[in-house]
Amino acid sequence: MKRKEVQRYAVLLVMAGMLSACNSVSSDKAGPAASGKKVTVVSVEKVSRGPISNRLYLTGEAVPVRSAGLGSPAEGPVKGLRVREGEQVRAGERILSIGRKKGAEALVSMQREKLRKEEENLKRIRNLVKQEAVPGELLDEAMVAFEQASSEYAKAQEALNDYFIRAPWAGVISSVKVRDGNFVPARMILVEMYDPDSMVIRTSLPEKDAVHVRMGMAASVRLDAYPDHLFPGSVVRVYPYLQPETRTRVFEVKLNRPVKLLPGMFARIILDLEKVENALTVPLHALTATAAGSAAVFVVTEGKAVLREITTGIETERSIQVLSGVEAGDPVIVAG
Are the CB atoms for 277 and 269 separated by under 8 Å? Predict the structure, then answer.
């Protein structure tokens, strides 16, 4: 039990002494006023059964798990920029090219010609070996030369393709950092993109609750973009460490049904760390304390307030779970 709650309701201990000196429900037929006995009026609520949850209320944002920054493979001027922010691209679609590729194109032409000659030579040697005009070892040498030429031609083509920036997978362009004609150095990030199907809600929880979050845990998400909806989801990733700056543990929630999310959308997350479906509960403001500082409530028994020590469990803003000390239906004093 929280110390502030003990202080808040310690005044009920005084009331207990008053109630023990007199019956709040008089047995005199003439009534309490006629008998001269003092009656204390109190408010009671019955111990009830129902679900109770240890909930955390967190904030987070929508982020893409799959994103990429497309860099320049070589220095040179940007040419043929084909995209702008917000456009969708297909896997392998050309986005732009780097202008200084004449050397790579010349190398491709040279290797293509070399491959053509080696292929012709291989056919000629194969026919001569069939006619037994030359030894078979020459055919082996011709095949090796042809395979080497094929490899060099493939490498030259790859080098040329490096001058074309293509989308690695289907997605949305989120940022274009250059324009046609800009001269860029090698490895500079030119375009950023993300996969909209990979969007999750990323948030974090404090260190004291860090060990309680787990994969598959149910969560509810409310987005400012959809204020009238509460979306069910589940925890799909839990980071294995605490952030050193904030001492918090990051985790990600995936919504259970498709929702259009944009990177940066603000989200409010409700996470049930623990839930009991059929718990005994009392109002939180019914709590008081024994002389030893243990949690307790006043139960009305035969018109008198009886202090009962209880064992508590999950606590919320309005109620608290009772593990032992009272039964369902017991009237407990909440005010008076």
Answer: no
